[in-house]
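Question (not urgent): is this output format expected?
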Amino acid sequence: MSHIQKRADHRYRAAARPDGRDRSRTFTRKADAERHLAAVEEAKSSGTYVGDANPITVGDYSRQWAGTRPHRPTTATRVASMISKHIDGTKIGSMRLAAVRPSQVQAWVSDRAQVSHRARCGFW
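Got this back:
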């Protein structure tokens, strides 16, 4: 069950229990709090919510995600190869999905850009 509570500082606390534990965020506008709760409920109902207690890794999640896509066989092979090369072979691939921070994703993107640049320039 989720709810919105107006606080004394004129902010809105959106609270939900998507994974059995209390989760809350504070917003300056009630509409933003309502939108957040709707997104959490949608993620729960579609099975895409990833809470802190979920042990799934980035690599496992990427393979799960790819398996649900309606790819042709050649595309599925290419996607599996990209996951193997660019996710499984990196530090971020073994991290819990819920524990990944934006700064870690940015570092991963920068690393992949360097790998791609070295490959194009023949530095292997």
